[in-house]
Amino acid sequence: MWLLNGKKYDCLNLASYNYLGFAEKNSETQDFVLKKLDEYGVSTTSCPLYAGQTELHDELEKCVADFLGVEAAMVFGMGWATNTTAIPALVGKGCLVISDSMNHNSIIVGARNSGSVIRTFAHNDVKELEKIVRRSIIEGQPRTHRPWKKILIIVEGVYSMEGEICRLAEIVQIKKKYKVNFFLFFLLFL
Asked: N or C terminus: fewer CB in 10 A for the chain?
């Protein structure tokens, strides 16, 4: 319901992160949420590294991993923390990050903080991405030409500033063809 000039309008709010309706007062989830607040409190108050995590976090990570058919998954409470902490944990000196030119600033900061060499490809241009991957494998590291310790492609699932969707199937094909690593950042607000 929206009030404008004394008139009430039924509207769909497309500017809210509450698109699943979980934050509505008197919703079907309210009793469940209140019970869990009593049980766990409002928050662990920080990231798992500093404040630990509950069995709910563990259960969610297992559920995500099972859904994706992978060994394990990590779930973070905020996108900035995800990128600025996870990327440096995955790559470092002697590694190469290949990043979409339209990636969020937190990805750029995480990649820079990692100490890796960073190369970018034109937004969603999988042909350019493949050329960079192939050339990087052939040439190796600058000056020494040693093989990279790790090559990590980083893209967003849905680009947060534009709303554009990555070319996931084609990027996964490149990842598999060249046996490189892949970091898909998918920000979901509930």
From this structure: N
Answer yes or no: is 96 within a domain.
yes
Phi then psi dihedrals of residue 86, to 5 deg: -70, -40
Tokens of 82: 């995800």
DSSP codes joined into one string, 102-132: T--HHHHHHHHHHT-EEEEE-TT-HHHHHHH
pLDDT tens string 132-188: 999 999 999 999 999 999 999 999 999 877 788 999 999 999 999 999 999 998 875
* CATH number, position 170: 3.40.640.10
Residue 66 lies in a domain: no
Domain that holds residue 128: 79-185
Torsion of CA 93, 155, 56, 39, to 10 degrees: 100
140: Cβ–Cβ under 8 A, 6 or more apart, which residues?
A: 146, 147, 148
Reported pTM: 0.72
Span 106-129, mean pLDDT?
A: 98
Task: Please report whether residue 141 resides in a domain.
Answer: yes
Q: What is the pLDDT of residue 190?
A: 40
Nearest partner of 74 among 97, 108, 93, 47, judged by Cα = 47
